[in-house]
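Why do we care about 3D structure at all? Because function follows from shape, and shape follows, mostly, from sequence. That is the central idea of this module. The next example makes it concrete: a single protein chain, its amino acid sequence, and then its structure expressed as tokens.
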Amino acid sequence: MVDTAEPPPLDLASLLGQASHALTARVGAELVDLGLSARDYAVLWRAAQGERTQVEVAELAGLDKTTMVVTLDGLERSGLARRRVLPSDRRARVVDVTPRGHALFEQAHVVVGRVYGDVLAALDPAHAQGFLGCLSTLTAGVLGPPHVGTIPRRRPVPAPPPRPDTSVTRAGVSLVSHRGPARATAPPTG
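And the structure:
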């Protein structure tokens, strides 16, 4: 275990982010000839693995809702995917990869595999296997995605604190506030 009392020796988040960004850029550059982006590939990959809703695919591909909608709109226009209503929940949409989408995905998978191989070739085989093993362990555990459906869509808005009921008497008139504007009430008679 790393001693957390000392500052970290390197910025792990930045290193992982830089590696992810650079790898995504390389993948995207290689997929251009197929007419796909790295995002398109990620969505097709997750959707091709089985029946998944749009929300599930987005979470597995690491895309926010807006980006997912734009990506799916493009995939549908290209005839590579389609959305259909989930019979058990008419609010949800399932992402289906079309036969043309499957064929293009298979071509893209070969291209991406070649890119990954080129990147990992920068390490000796034992280090490459160790790196992949460690990364797999981390992303299957402490750095893994949350379970599908558990990501809050918005930050919860805290309820306003209850306003205390107040009663102030002035010149025989009681001013009472009950979570609304103060109103004057006449003193009781009798």
